[in-house]
Design goal:
CATH topology of the largest domain: Rossmann fold
Number of helices: 12
GO molecular function, one term: hexosyltransferase activity
Organism: Candidatus Segetimicrobium genomatis
Keywords: Glycosyltransferase, Transferase
Number of domains: 2
Structural class: alpha/beta
Low-confidence stretches: 140-146
CATH class of the largest domain: Alpha Beta
Radius of gyration: 20 Å
Protein name: UDP-N-acetylglucosamine--N-acetylmuramyl-(Pentapeptide) pyrophosphoryl-undecaprenol N-acetylglucosamine transferase
Strand order of the largest sheet: 7-8-6-5-9-10-11
Order of helices and strands: EHEHEEHHEHEEEHEHEHEHHHH
Strand content: 15-25%
């Protein structure tokens, strides 16, 4: 039997977690969202500890079993240099950069608003945009908004961000949905953000994820129903043009980050593998 198990959710984890619990193997469940998912709530019943991203996530989970660790992310997400990012995307070091993340499958509403925002900001020679559109975007906007220089602005569009750490490193601000991984990355990198929660997420967990960062002063929230190119362009301009605004939001975002989350989880699992349940919970 293994010395310990880590489960990240999903129904496929259930048989293994139950088997581990029957054998007495310590199980750690990772929950990155502010609202624990249905399957993780079930897995938590068989776990010794649930590693959560915030105290809010502990609500609804077995009492006394949660530990705030943050959500582990890859080290390369937050260790790349600004110069490395600028080289990777062919950017101008003298301009400020906005990173727009549409997700691996794309987000039609967000992508459309981003393209419209770029068109509205076309005259800005101090701005460049990296737009990750995802594989699900059909490219309908390409005829309207070609990649490359558009009047003054520089626009770089890519399907995927294979080097997302480099993208964060050169970004002055980020526009994103509010999944657990995205927020863990944004805060670990200390980037100001414009957050657009996906409105159909289970238990509205994306809005709940965003709430803590917005309350801390590290992000601006734009509800999906209000998202248009005009609104997004206005929010981007407000971040860039108000003196000190980027720095203030970035510092607040960094204060919420846990780049050491992976180390915390490893330490927790190591301790579990050598301790009794009473020692861990006590």
């Amino acid at each position: 039997a293994p010395d310990a198990m880590i489960a990240t959710g999903g129904i496929a984890a259930l048989p293994a977690v139950i088997a581990g619990a029957i054998q007495g193997t310590p199980v750690v469940v990772l929950e990155g969202n502010a609202v624990p998912g249905r399957m993780n709530r079930i897995l938590a019943r068989f776990s010794r500890v649930v590693a959560v991203s915030s105290d809010e996530a502990a609500v609804g989970l077995p009492a006394g079993r949660t530990v705030v660790t943050g959500l582990p992310i890859r080290r390369e997400i937050y260790t790349a240099s600004r110069e490395e990012g600028q080289r990777a995307f062919g950017l101008d070091p003298s301009r400020r950069t906005v990173l727009i993340i549409g997700g691996s499958q794309g987000a039609t509403r967000l992508n459309r608003a981003a393209e419209e925002a770029v068109a509205r900001l076309a005259s800005r020679g101090d701005l460049q945009v990296i737009h990750q559109v995802g594989g699900g975007w059909d490219g309908a906007g390409r005829a309207q908004t070609p990649a490359g220089p558009i009047a003054g602005i520089r626009y770089v569009r890519v399907p995927y961000l294979e080097r997302i750490g480099a993208a964060y490193a050169c970004a002055d601000a980020v526009v994103s949905r509010c999944g657990a991984n995205a927020l863990a990355e944004i805060t670990a990198c200390g980037r100001p953000a414009i957050l657009v929660p996906y409105p159909y997420a289970a238990d509205d967990h994306q809005a709940r994820n965003a709430r803590r960062l917005v309350a801390a002063g590290g992000a601006v929230l734009v509800p999906d129903a209000q998202l248009t190119g005009e609104v997004l362009a206005g929010e981007i301009a407000a971040l860039l043009d108000r003196p000190g605004r980027l720095e203030t939001l970035g510092a607040a975002a960094r204060s919420q980050g846990r780049p050491d989350a992976a180390d915390r989880v490893v330490a927790l699992v190591s301790r579990l593998a050598q301790a009794t349940p009473q020692e861990v919970r006590g």
